[in-house]
């Protein structure tokens, strides 16, 4: 038996946490009503309102997400600049049985997030694609792991929040199960002073 050690360098962060409460009847009723105000996306349905977190019904959910943005900034980005992450656009996605959410990224955003409002934890997942992996020579893989995979599944549950770099490609493949998978997605951007004046890469965003 060879004694060896395998290290992961430059990992991509997938921040996850859960709401510390159930969604209220008022919040869920609002989500249900918004389904009548959607357009057909490539594979599922998305709300016309792309600033949905500004609605009073989502006031407390927005506060929770803003706390998570602050936590992400402190634990992962760890900037010595006095900056914050603020939520820019936000919207609801509805995915029915046999529908999907196309592979995509989120331009003009630093960190993106998905809060799951209704899922079937037995079948619902999010699929992330490797940001840089390309192999000219590709052996046929017999056992997948974090080092030889082009994509990675993560199961999702109601009340769970995922946050990740907006450049990370993700998707929902064809949905199984007869429930409606509902998610609240959002983008963020920096506010404050980024970089260094002395080193000539300062950027002030107000």
Overview of the structural elements:
It contains two helices and twelve strands. With 206 residues, the protein is α+β, with helices and mostly antiparallel strands. The chain has one domain: Jelly Rolls, CATH 2.60.120.620. The strands form two sheets. Strands 1, 2, 3, 4, 6, 9, 11 and 12 form an eight-stranded antiparallel beta sheet that branches. It has a four-stranded antiparallel beta sheet with strand order 5-10-7-8, with no helix packed on it. A hairpin with an 8-residue loop joins strand 11 and strand 12. The protein is globular, with a radius of gyration of 19 Å.
Task: Report the strand count.
Answer: 12
Terminus-to-terminus distance? 58 Å
The rounded Rg comes to: 19 Å
Q: What is the CATH class designation?
A: Mainly Beta
CATH topology: Jelly Rolls
Helical/strand content category: alpha+beta
Strand percentage lies at 25-35%
Observed structural traits:
alpha+beta; Jelly Rolls; eight-stranded antiparallel sheet; 12 strands; globular
Summarize the structure.
The protein is of the alpha+beta class and 206 residues long. Helices cover 14% and strands 34% of the residues.
Summarize the SSE layout with pairings:
Elements: E1 15-18, H1 25-34, E2 38-40, E3 45-47, H2 59-77, E4 83-95, E5 101-104, E6 111-118, E7 125-129, E8 151-155, E9 160-165, E10 170-172, E11 181-194, E12 203-205
Antiparallel strand pairs: 1-9, 2-3, 3-4, 4-11, 5-10, 6-9, 6-11, 7-8, 7-10, 11-12
